[in-house]
Amino acid sequence: MPISVLVVDDQELMRMGLKMVLGAHPDIDVIGEAGNGDEAVRRAAELLPDVVLMDVRMPVVDGVTATARIVAAGSGVRVLVMTTFDLDEHALGALRAGASGFLLKDTPPEDLVSAIRSVAAGDAVVSPKVTKRLLDRLVAEDPTSLRDPKILDVLTAREREVLEQIALGHSNAEIAAALFLSEATVKTHVGRVLTKLGLRDRVQAVVLAYETGLVRPGS
Predict the structure, then answer these.
(1) How far, rounded to the nearest angstrom, does the alpha carbon of residue 103 sit from its chain's CA centroid?
(2) Scanning 8, 55, 160, 176, which has the fewest C-beta atoms within 10 Å of its C-beta?
């Protein structure tokens, strides 16, 4: 079955371009489009696409709010947000709302297609290091964004170490080297961290690590 995609952008020309790019790939099927966040929420509920390609800055309802509503619906629809700037606080808001990652609008077509495939397969596509830069900036500007660190009490000491390594943007191989573990063991720990904290992917793990103060700006 091809990957079903809902394209959301307030600019019709942008939607047309995205549909042309994605339509050239037989494993991707653009099943609908929307011009604002409110319409995106309704269309996502009707069509249940595998992936929503979501603009973040839109009229009526913005992409961050729309992302939160789509994720909260519990349908399993995954959201990939697109933004103009890599240090866009709106993109971070979408990640906090449950998006599986974000891309810049000048992303090459082949990278966009690869990202959609990855998200549909259950992976996150935003680099944790990019997320880290966003959080370094925004947590420093807004200390009220921190959450109760007791959330992390469900983790073992080793799992907290693994979460900290994830938040620093390290790969499984890098974590294995830093903690003197095998990659298979690291993978197991990562899975347990995500499960215990109710997170969908590594990106949300990075966000939570910052919000609980496990990792501080500039770490």
Answers:
(1) 10
(2) 160
Helix (H) / strand (E) containing 32: strand 28-34
> What is the C-alpha to C-alpha distance for residues 207 and 99, in angstroms, rounded to an integer?
11
162, two tokens: 């693994």
Q: How far apart are the first and last CA of the chain?
A: 43
In angstroms, rounded to a whole number, what is the distance separating the alpha carbons of residues 10 and 38? 11
Whole-model pTM above 0.90?
no
Dihedral Cα 148, 193, 119, 47, nearest 10 deg:
-70
pLDDT tens digits for 58-70? Answer: 988 999 999 999 9
Maximal C-alpha separation, the chain? 52
Any bridge partners for residue 82, and if so which? 55, 103
Read off the amino acid at residue 143: P
Q: What distance in Å separates the CA atoms of residue 218 and residue 106, rounded to the nearest whole number?
A: 28
Query: In sequence order, which residues have a C-beta less than 8 Å from that of residue 157 and are 6 or more positions away?
Result: none
Question: What digits encode the pLDDT tens for the residues 10-49?
Answer: 999 999 999 999 999 999 999 999 999 999 999 999 999 9
Place of tokens 């339509």: 23
CA dist 217 → 87, 163, 174, 175 (Å) = 15, 15, 21, 20
